[in-house]
Inverse folding.
């Protein structure tokens, strides 16, 4: 079949070489950042049993109702799903490999996630997340740590204007009290509910408060607040979290309407939000999920985590702080003897830690020098048959006004290092 005209799947992006400096700078920053807090990397498969997500994220959520890439593996009839998020997979992996046996775990992952959403700026069908999960920790100190890590990352990346919103969902029991009050209230405003909300009235009323439909704003504003139904322990937990954040100089706003789009959260929830990205302003979101480990089949284990949207964060990273990584040298050569010596020179320099581009293809010296210049390399290495015979190379600085020098290959690495 001809492949002409085949395009990438809608909402799934190629990341091109011109964008890679930014991605690699980010990825290296993330590795250093996570290591600084003692979080260890874990890598889960991209595909999981569908049930894992239905059970953990919740059947009546946007993700499970309409965003999952689910398919039947026709070879064995299993229902599989491309992961829409990482927490469920991470918890599954931790349980499967008994990692909690050796105590609480601080873990992080990064990679592609898949959601069938309407593609727009900052919202894609394949996107990337970095997530951190602290499993086996019940106190507000770990919630604070995860939040403070966010503040630290913005500093490391030179990102400004991201503000922190926190909230609490209380315990499962206090939420069920609240739920009854909320359903009562919403039932009194039935005619003002949109289709989604009417459908969720009994199955997931809390999620109605997270609606992005502007027509629902008024009824949401007037709804009973979960904060007023909170249990004592959750309130103390929330107070202590705020105290740590204040002590550590991290500014926050309390958002009583913060519910998050997944069912497994309880107590602390938080979002890092920016105004610079239009409607897609949440760059990082997380919270506590004390019930999830048990729900996925393990022993009751408290836990807290976050996931950040890599594309959205990268959109905030300034170009100026991205280091450029041009090659060190570009090797130009002309003539049969020169070609062999050029290969040898490039290998010799790479073995000593230099990034060397060897000119491939035909081309006059002049044309090759133009390519050397365009490559961004600091030096052109020029080899003609004459140089090759003498075992020497000419080094021409391309970025500064210095003389071209001719040296033996054995001295070249030292000379380049000193330059
Ligand atoms: P939103 O309210 O924007 O739909 P969400 O609550 O569905 O976000 P989470 O499941 O909490 O998002 O995912 C964590 C982060 O991942 C988000 O804050 C966002 O930065 C990013 N993210 C989520 N969905 C997408 C997407 N489709 N494309 C790009 N980034 C996304
Ligand atoms: Mg969403």
């Amino acid at each position: 079949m001809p492949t002409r005209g085949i395009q990438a799947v809608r909402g799934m992006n190629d990341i091109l070489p011109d964008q890679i400096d930014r991605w690699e700078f980010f990825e290296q920053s993330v590795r250093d950042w996570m290591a600084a807090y003692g979080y260890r990397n874990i890598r889960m498969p991209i595909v999981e049993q569908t049930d894992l997500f239905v059970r953990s994220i919740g059947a009546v959520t946007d993700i499970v109702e309409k965003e999952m890439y689910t398919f039947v593996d026709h070879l064995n009839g299993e229902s599989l799903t491309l992961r829409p998020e990482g927490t469920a997979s991470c918890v599954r992996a931790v349980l499967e490999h008994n990692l909690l046996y050796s105590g609480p775990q601080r873990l992080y992952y990064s990679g592609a996630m898949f959601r069938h959403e309407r593609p727009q700026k900052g919202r894609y069908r394949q996107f990337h997340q970095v997530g951190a999960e602290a499993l086996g920790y019940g106190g507000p100190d770990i919630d604070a740590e995860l939040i403070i890590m966010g503040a630290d990352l913005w500093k490391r990346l030179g990102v400004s204007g991201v503000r922190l919103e926190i909230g609490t969902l209380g315990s499962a029991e206090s939420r069920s009290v609240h739920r009854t009050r909320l359903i009562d209230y919403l039932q009194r405003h039935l005619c003002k509910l949109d289709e989604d909300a009417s459908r969720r009235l009994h199955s997931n009323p809390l999620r109605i408060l997270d609606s992005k439909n502007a027509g629902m704003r008024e009824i949401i504003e007037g709804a009973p607040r979960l904060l007023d139904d909170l249990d004592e322990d959750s309130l103390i937990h929330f107070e202590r979290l705020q105290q740590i954040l204040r002590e550590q100089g991290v500014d926050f706003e309390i958002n009583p309407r913060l519910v998050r789009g997944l069912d497994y959260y309880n107590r602390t929830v938080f979002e890092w939000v920016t105004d610079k990205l239009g409607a897609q302003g949440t760059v990082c979101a997380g919270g506590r999920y004390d019930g999830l480990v048990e729900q996925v089949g393990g022993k009751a284990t408290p836990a807290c985590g976050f996931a950040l949207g890599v594309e959205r964060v990268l959109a905030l990273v300034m170009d100026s702080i991205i280091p450029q990584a041009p090659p060190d040298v570009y090797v130009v050569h002309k003539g049969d003897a020169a070609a062999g010596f050029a290969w040898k020179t490039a290998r010799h320099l790479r073995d000593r830690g230099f990034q060397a581009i060897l000119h491939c293809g035909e081309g006059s010296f002049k044309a090759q020098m133009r390519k050397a210049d365009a490559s961004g390399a600091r030096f052109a290495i020029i080899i003609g048959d004459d140089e090759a015979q003498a075992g020497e190379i000419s080094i021409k600085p391309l970025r500064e006004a210095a003389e071209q020098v001719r040296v033996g290959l054995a001295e070249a690495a030292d000379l380049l290092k000193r330059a």
